[in-house]
Amino acid sequence: MTTVLDSRAIQEILPHRYPFLLVDKIIELEPRIRIVGIKQVTANEHFFQGHFPDAPVMPGVLQIEAMAQVGAILALREFEDRANKIPFFSGIERARFRRPVVPGDTLIIEVIALRIGSKVQKMQGIARVDGHITAEAEIMCIIGSREKGETK
Prior knowledge:
Helix content is 16%, strand content 40%. By secondary structure, the protein is α+β, with helices and mostly antiparallel strands. The chain has one domain (7-149): Hotdog Thioesterase (Thiol Ester Dehydrase, Chain A), CATH 3.10.129. It is globular and about 45 Å long.
């Protein structure tokens, strides 16, 4: 797998940081069309402490969040002033969880742009482990301003 964006490049685009940054690298990128990211799921993930100690499973909502972060990279790359932008979740539709994600898995997250606008984004996300779908959803976000929490 070729790395298109590494962790440092991702952090130059996304405002998320540990422990909530859920994308390790981007391996494919077609601007305004499609992006593929990787999340290496390790036993050290903070959420495994309570979900569940004897049978660790990555929460489905965090798989959706990982999709949203990968999609945000695709969207934010289109803004020259992206350092002043922040993506806010505005909707999740047709979410389905197919299989558990456990420590040691490599989560491959593909996001396809359905609509990329200056304010509203809509994308289709699919997460896979070993070629098997673990989660999928349509996700929407609003691109807001990082200044004083403004969304206009």
